[in-house]
Amino acid sequence: MKTVEHPLAVTYLEAVAREAAALAPERRNELLADLTEHIAVAFAEQPASNEAEVKAVLDRLGDPRTIVATAREGETIAPPVSKWHSHAPLISLPVAGLLGGVNLVLGGIAMIAGVVLLWAAPHWSRRDKIIGTAAALPVPIALVGIAFTAATTGPLDPGLLTLVAPSVLVPSAASVYLFRAGRRMSS
Predict the structure, then answer these.
(1) CA dist., res. 65 & res. 60, Å (int)
(2) pLDDT value at 139 more than 80
(3) What are the angstrom distances between the C-alpha of 150 and each of 71, 110, 165?
(4) CA angle, 8 as apex, 30 and 72 as ends, to 5°?
(5) Helix 159-186 and helix 126-136, axial crossing angle in degrees, nearest 10
(6) Residue-level pLDDT at 53
(7) Dihedral angle over CA of 167, 172, 178, 181, nearest 10
(8) At residue 89, what are phi and psi to the nearest 5 degrees?
(9) Distance CA 142, CA 164 (A)
(10) 102: confidence class by pLDDT, cuts 50, 70, 90
(11) What pLDDT band is residue 19 in, cutting at 50, 70 and 90?
(12) Would the pTM count as exceeding 0.90?
């Protein structure tokens, strides 16, 4: 059996992999490859014939937490994105247009919340966030139009549908785009 395949060495590398889960995949793979190489070189220079010698070599490499902490220095780590954080803007932007047809204040709050959540989400690029924000613009325009139309013609005017439709359809299309862009970024 090769010494790098020794159960203690495998357990050590698995511990490093667990500790390095928050690192970027390429950085984590590079770190594990380097450690595997160090272990192989150490055992090539001084073959380990028992568990105590294998353990001594691994102890010289250092604690897995310390190794990963050193690897993290200077690297920005993206926090994991929750399902809520990734889906909330996708839902609130189109819903803002619907709510605007019923209650202008709720529609405005939903639109602002959707845009804020969109910009707070770390998994979309700046370009995607600009597209999502631009797609939310029909909502306040429609809200003003709905308020004006409802004040002059009444709340059940068929012309309101021409204002509500784009304030729902455009953000819905942007939500589909953002959903696909978010999936591309995470894969």
Answers:
(1) 14
(2) no
(3) 61, 20, 16
(4) 30
(5) 170
(6) 85
(7) -140
(8) -65, -30
(9) 6
(10) confident
(11) confident
(12) no
Q: What is the DSSP letter of 46?
A: S
Nearest to 83, CA basis, from 169, 179, 173: 179
Residue whose entry in the numeric block shows the structure tokens 């003003």: 144
Between CA 38 and CA 141 the distance in angstroms is 63
Q: b/e per residue, 78-87, with b = 16+ CB within 10 A?
A: eeeeeeeebb
Cα(70)–Cα(53) distance, integer angstroms: 25
| Burial (Cβ within 10 Å: 0-12, 13-18, ≥19) of residue 36 | middle
Match 């909330």 to its residue by tokens.
88
Dihedral angle, C-alpha 175, 181, 185, 187, nearest 10 ° = 100
Q: Cα(20)–Cα(18) distance, rounded to whole angstroms?
A: 5
List Cβ neighbours of 131 (8 Å cut-off, separation of 6 or more). Answer: 174, 177, 178
- Structural tokens at position 4: 């790098």
Give the Cα separation of 46 and 93 in Å (integer). Answer: 63
Tell me phi and psi for residue 133, to 5 degrees. -70, -45
Alpha-carbon span 122 to 144, nearest angstrom? 31
Q: Which amino acid is at 75?
A: E
Q: By the 8 A CB rule, do 2 and 37 touch? A: no
The answer to whether 81 and 187 are in contact (CB under 8 A) is: no
